[in-house]
Amino acid sequence: MTKIGLPLEGVRVIEYANFVAAPICGRLLADWGAEVIKIEPTFGDTMRFVGIQWCFPTDEKENPMFEIENSGKKGIVIDTGTKEGVEVIYKLLDDADIFLTNTRQKALDRSGLNYEEVKKRAPHIIYAHLLGYGENGPAKDNPAFDYTAYFARGGVSMSLMEKGGSPCNPVAGLGDHYAGISLAAGVLAALRKKEETGKGERVTVSLFHTAVFGMGIMVSAAHYGYRMPITRKNPPNPINTTFKCADDRWLQVAFMQYDKWFPNFCNTVIERPDLIGSKYSTMKSAVNYVEEFVEILEKEFIKRPIDEWCARLQAAGIPYEKLATTDEVLVDEQCWANDCLIKHTFESGNEGVVFNTPVMFTENKRGEYVRAPKFGEHTKEVLESAGVSGAEFEELKEKGIIK
Question: Whole domain around residue 306: which residue ranges?
Fold first, then answer.
């Protein structure tokens, strides 16, 4: 299952994690060539069951939600609530490079799988821990999901809502994916240092910090008085917002070089040369008349359908995009031209679409897509390779410690 020729070929990861944020880190590492061994509890990763909320099938032969977070891994089942189960994990760590987890600290302390213990028994291990709120502070032991730690407390949800409206319902997994790719980057830095020293490291990323980092410009702006949420009628500059078109579609314009682009925008896009030289023609002046100018522009954009506006903006070289639905992303030729999405036939015989992780390599291209493991599929294979004898395996199985 190792991806031959990829950058992390020969690296072994023990993933003791569930849900999204840490498992997507594991998937990234697997895509980059690492052997990732996913440990599930005896009742299974919750991701095997929750997809029904988003219309996914959740049976053994077709489980896209589990698939998209866990493809390319080997799967084993261990009861980590037992001393014998924890000892099995330590056997696996003997020949591993990375231990990846999003288990809460108190549970790790109880099981003896916290960093301090792992460092004593396996000092070569890079210990990658995906946290909710960070290592310190009053919320450090709180349960966390991206809905709460990332979107809510991190300020993301309030930044996405229209001022005076209600908060949006966040996109499940969005914050998890950003935290996961951040943790993967940290792991690679630690792996590079380990090559020099032979010593492990602890790498942590939290959902909360990921949100604050992503919101960093706006959080810093708050210090100087800029407040969110805002309304689309009062954006940072009057052309840098969304506009409704004649066919009820919405258009986003990114008007970042205001003074430079303004004359061409007026002449060739909206055909209002009378606005050139007006109080709206420079950024310094326009920020004092934002809502007033947005109202003028709304009356222009509502005159034509979105495709006509796209053609005009494209010809003018001004950045824009239609506000796409997920259905439209699913068939976007840009996705398929760049391998953002993959068609995958499940064992049910149904064809589905799964996403590709976003880091691509030119010289060391990925191999074929490898499906996610079935529940406990590789337990025997992995434990045998770790030196667990046949008799030990049967004893662990008889006690229900492995499946």
Answer: 250-322
